[in-house]
Structures are given as C-alpha cells and as structure tokens.
Amino acid sequence: MDGSRRSLGLPAAAAAVALAWCLLVMVLSGVFIVPASATHEIFPELQCVSVLNVKKVHRTGFHFQPPKHWINDPNGPMVYKGIYHLFYQYNPKGAVWGNIVWAHSVSRDLVNWKTLEPAIYPSKPFDIRGCWSGSATILPDGRPVILYTGLDKDAVQMQNYAIPSDMNDPYLRRWSKPDDNPLIYPSKDVNASAFRDPSTAWFSGGHWKTVIGSRHHHRGIVYMYRSKDFKHWNRVKHPFHTVPNTGNFECPDFFPVLKAGQNGIDTSAVGENVRHVLKVSLDETRYEYYTIGTYNPDKDKYVPDGSLEDGWGGLRLDYGNFYASKTFYDSGKGRRILWGWANESDSQANDTTKGWAGVQVRTWKSYDFFSQVDDAFLSYCRRCTFCQTIPRTMWLDSGGKQLVHWPVQEIETLRGNKVELQNVELKRGEHVEVKGITAAQADVEVVFAFSDLSRAEHFDPRWGPAHRICAQKSANSPGGLGPFGLMTLATVDFHEYTPVFFRIFKADNNKHIILLCSDARNSSHAGDLYKPAFGGFVNVDISHGKLSLRTLIDNSVVESFGAGGRTCITSRVYPEKATYDNARLFAFNHGSSPITVEKLSAWSMKNADRNIGGTI
Ligand SMILES: *[C@@H]1O[C@H](CO)[C@@H](O)[C@H](O)[C@H]1NC(C)=O
Ligand SMILES: *[C@@H]1O[C@H](CO)[C@@H](O)[C@H](O)[C@H]1NC(C)=O
Ligand SMILES: *[C@@H]1O[C@H](CO)[C@@H](O)[C@H](O)[C@H]1NC(C)=O
Ligand SMILES: *[C@@H]1O[C@H](CO)[C@@H](O)[C@H](O)[C@H]1NC(C)=O
C-alpha cells in the first residue's frame, strides 16, 4: 500500500478537539416536545415474537448474520487498534423491524465475527423511542465517536453522540451517551420525522462536517452541519445536496476516492488527487444511487459531474438486494470498505407463519438488553436470513466515471477445495457442470471469451432500464451474443435455479451495450416470495473479446461482481430443493454465437464464525 498518499494532517485541530472533548460538561437546556411520527412501518403485534427452534436451511455460511432475529442497516463500521467493529440495526426481540438497538460485533479479519452486547440502546430521553442509524468518526487523537439518530418520546428525530466508556477495552464493549445530547436537534424548518443517519464526520477548513438525510415533501435533501469542537453544530445555510422527486434521502455517505489506483483515503482528504462521492438511499424504492463529483471544502459545495444521472436512474453500488450501505476508511490497510444490507422482502404475515415457535409477546419498553445475549445463542430461525453483503474494497474506476468494488481479500481465507475448467467451448444451448465443490456455498471466478461480436443483437433504447430488460429476456430466451453465464443454486433438472448472465447488444452508434442480469424468478417455486429479476449495464471495453464474472454463492445469497466489480448484483433466494448437496453449478450459453469458458476457478467455501461463538 502506498502510505504516502493517504497522508492528511489534522494535528492543528487535534489539540482543540481533544480539549473540547474532555470538557463534557455542557448540558443542553430545555426539553423539546414536538409531535412527530416515525416513518418506519411498525408491527407492534409481531415485533416481540421471539424466534425459537426452526430450520437452518437458508442460513448463510460466510455472510455476516446475527444469531437470529431482524437486522437492518450496517452502522458505524470502523477499525480501532486493529480490531474491526460493525454495529447494526437489530431487533433483539423478534424477526420484524422493531425495538431497534445498535448490536455490536468485532472481528480481526472482516470475515469471522464475534457478538458483543448491544452498544447503544434506548435509555435516555433523547433516544427513548429508538437508536437509529449512524456512523463512527475516529478523532485525531485516535478516539472513536459515534453519531446516531435518536428518537424522543414524541418520535422527533435528532442526532446524538456516544463514546466508549473504557478506552482500554480493545473491544470497546460499553458505550456511554453523555447528558449533553442531543448534539443536533431539528430546527423548525427541518422535517423532524425525516431527519436521520449522520455520516462519518470529516475535518476541513477548521470545521468538522457531517451530512444528514432528509426530505421536504417529495424532494430529497442532504443537510450539512459544521462544528469547530464536535459538540456545537450549526447547519450550513444551503442544503449540501437536494434533488426533486426522489422522496426521502436516507443514509447519506460522503467520502473521497483517489483519482488513480485502488487505495482508499481518509474521509477528510481533499485536494487535487481526489474526487468525491455522494451516496443516498431512497426510502421509497429501497434503492440507492450515487454520484461522483467535485467538493469545494471552502464553500462546502458538492457538484456532481454533469454526465451522471442525479436521481432514481443514477449509478448504483449494487443493482440487487442492497440498501443502507456505508463505507469506512480502513487505515491499517489503506483501503475504503463498503458494507451494505442485503435486504429481503417477504410479507410480515408470511414470516410469522413460517418456522416460528415459542411466542413471547411483550409491550414496548426499555428492556434490560444485556440479558438477551445468552438467549440469542440458543436457536436459529429459518427466516432470520437478513444479512450484510460481503465487505467490499472500493475505488474509482480508471476512467473516473464509476466506482468499482471487490470482496475483501480476507474472504479468500475461507476457500477450500478448488476445481478448474479451461477452454471449454459452449455452443448454443450447451452447459457444463462445475463438479467437485459445495455448489451451495462457493466462490466462482470465470472469464468468458468470444471472438465474434457480429451476432450481438440490436439494442432498442425504448426497452427501458436494465432490470426490465432482464425481466423480458430471461436466461432461457435465445439471443445472439449471450445470454451466457452461471446457473447457480440449480437442481439437476433445472426446476430451480438462479442464473447470473451477460447479454451483449449493439446500439445504433455501433457501440456495444453489455447487460448483467441476476434472475431470482425460478430460484424457488414457493408461494409469493419476492423473486425479482435484477439487472445493471456494465461499462467496460469488450474489444478484446472477454468478460469476467465472480459470484459468491452462499445458500440464500448470490452476490455477483461483473467485469472486475464494475457492476454488482446481490440476489436473495430461497431454494427448496437446490440446497446443500442438492445444489448444482453450471456455466451455460444460450446465445447463437459460441463462447469459451476460458478459465473458471471455483472453490468450496468454509463457514466463517458468524457471531455464533468463537473468539477473535
Ligand atoms: C416529513 O416526513 C414525513 C416522514 O417521512 C412525511 O410523512 C411528511 O410528509 C414530511 N413532511 C414534509 C413537509 O416533507
Ligand atoms: C428490499 O428492497 C427491495 C428493492 O430492492 C424493496 O422492494 C423491498 O421493499 C425491500 N424490503 C425491505 C424489507 O426493506
Ligand atoms: C422458469 O422455468 C420455467 C419452466 O422451466 C420456464 O418456462 C421459464 O422460462 C423460466 N423463467 C425464467 C425467468 O427463467
Ligand atoms: C405466504 O402467504 C401466502 C398467503 O398470504 C401463501 O399463499 C404463501 O404460500 C405463503 N408463502 C410461504 C412461502 O409460506
């Protein structure tokens, strides 16, 4: 890693900040009472239905998961003294959204995780109705501080901070929430029901800065707040970013990327060698999009590059089940790492009829959350298959027009038995099975080669967005150049399968358009599960006649990285027959143009310690 490029001098600020930090004496005066309502759907009758004694079939083997119950946004990822921390929105009581706390796990390698007690949970007037998402900032003296959204008894959303109670505990098990919270209370012109998810703060021009998601009617807004001492925050007059007709912005993430190379850089970095990225999560569609642009730290203005769509059709970090993502700078390894929530969608009613036993209903109050941890180890549930995606290293593509991500290299430590295929030609309608690995839990890297681009079908711009094309032209619909790719989690008779595949088109301007699809529609035939066809275009040069694909298959997750991580798609699937040893993996081609599996390497993947036990 190139250490010289991640330099960023904060020492001048350090002393002032450290001093202010020690003076934790200021108590905000007054109690704010403003009626407002939370937006999250609440199922009071279900949120405390504890889960006991149910099937493990769709549990993942190496994706981050809690032992049971509901999980949503990853929160406050950070590295502190060589230990990675991941907090996440968690319901310790049940498998639907509710009773949200900041659950806490630690790891030395981003792969094996150990659960600690929840770090932050409702206990004070400024968060008594919820401890929602937020981020960690490492202060110049090395101490972490968490900014998070708390809801008071009237469900007003406000920004609070928490600090470790014992800096000598390497696991930072206990966190305290000083009484001078909240740090940021919504002023009258801010929507107090949509004011949340503070980002990691950065330091520039003598100020700490953080961005917070919001809305005004249907306009998405990212507000920026500034502080000299991390304690007294003022809103910058202009919205940091705002876009009409997007709906609420959640989980804004704002960070620099280096113009060249794959290294990451500290969140406070500015200057000639960086571009900036603003990502928002769209509450209404549960999609995210980002722009790359220019940040002026003096004026605190962010201007997205004009060529990029700034709205619903914008670039996405992942075109599948992926939401509420958050990055952090891994200072030890000089890389920026992305976490996302692989959400799923099944009806709440379905969830309670499937696999639950041992109903335990309580009304909402401030629990003794620590007593829940032992209970959490007792059982697994079938439908508590919410998880986080594999942490990904992220950087700016060499053309500067999009981000690229790739599973952290540590995940490769789980690779077991390996098989390879080389130079296997697949004519129209042919497939080849990849035998000798655990196909339900595998890591697959493949390079497809094609010599003849002439059979690429004509592209019609009226077809609409990528996912719509994937829904119309399935893996079985014959094409010219493609569809070709992988059939994952397949039964031997192809009754169930989740194909991940490319199709190459030719547009009127003679340019090639490459589509990557991940189609869950035949992944199982159970009831009314959410099984969409996802798709994204791939911006890559194919003049050398090659396309690569990596797919991490993990029982109920199919997480794919097209063209070296330029287009990523995560699908959640629930096969009934293609499970464990009954799952198969194939490479296939349903295009008329022959393609060659130039090289395919596949590995069985071992289980990681996923919060179930173990030590770090
Ligand atoms: C404020 O946010 C709430 C929750 O998202 C929404 O229902 C309401 O319409 C918003 N009000 C305005 C004025 O934007
Ligand atoms: C998950 O995301 C999809 C869109 O990708 C959305 O339709 C669905 O409502 C989301 N489910 C949950 C539980 O957030
Ligand atoms: C699903 O499988 C059926 C039966 O094999 C097939 O007719 C259909 O085309 C498949 N759909 C997709 C989207 O692959
Ligand atoms: C989900 O519930 C619907 C009825 O609401 C039912 O038809 C369907 O089979 C259920 N799905 C599963 C997987 O249990």
Characterise this structure:
Residues 1-38 form the signal peptide. With 616 residues, the protein is mainly beta. It has three domains: 1-30; 31-36 and 70-396, Tachylectin-2, Chain A (5 Propeller); 409-605, Sandwich (Jelly Rolls), CATH 2.60.120. It is built from four helices and 36 strands. It has helices at residues 11-22, 348-353, 372-376, 466-472; strands spanning 71-80, 83-90, 101-107, 114-120, 131-138, 144-151, 157-164, 175-176, 195-196, 202-204, 207-216, 219-227, 233-235, 241-243, 249-258, 274-282, 287-296, 301-304, 323-330, 335-342, 387-388, 392-396, 403-407, 415-426, 430-433, 441-449, 457-458, 481-490, 498-506, 512-519, 533-538, 546-554, 557-562, 567-572, 584-589, 595-605. Strands 25, 27, 28, 29, 30, 31 and 35 form a seven-stranded mixed β-sheet that branches. A hairpin with a 2-residue loop joins β11 and β12. One 2-acetamido-2-deoxy-beta-D-glucopyranose is lined by residues 39, 191, 193-194, 215-217, 248.
